[in-house]
Specification:
With about 70 residues, the chain is an all-alpha fold. The protein is built from 4 helices and no strands. The chain is elongated, with a radius of gyration of 12 Å.
Length: about 70
């Protein structure tokens, strides 16, 4: 199981992946940091620990941003 530092780093990497997503037409960010943090806050540390070995931060970012 992942430790707290690994989970924090994973959470930070997911946040960064969300913030790096851009509209392909105009290059503007697809999400504001405040909204990204809210979406990411819906995942518990336990959920992140369960997925850390199976999902890249980019995959989790895509899943969280799917409805956008």
């Amino acid at each position: 199981m992942a430790n707290i530092e690994e989970i924090k780093a994973y959470r930070d990497a997911i946040l960064q992946a969300m913030l790096n997503k851009r509209d392909p037409e105009d290059g503007f960010p697809l999400i504001l940091e405040k909204h990204a943090r809210q979406l990411l806050g819906e995942l518990t540390d336990e959920e992140l620990a369960d997925g850390i070995l199976f999902n890249t931060p980019e995959e989790v970012a895509d899943l969280l941003m799917e409805p956008l």
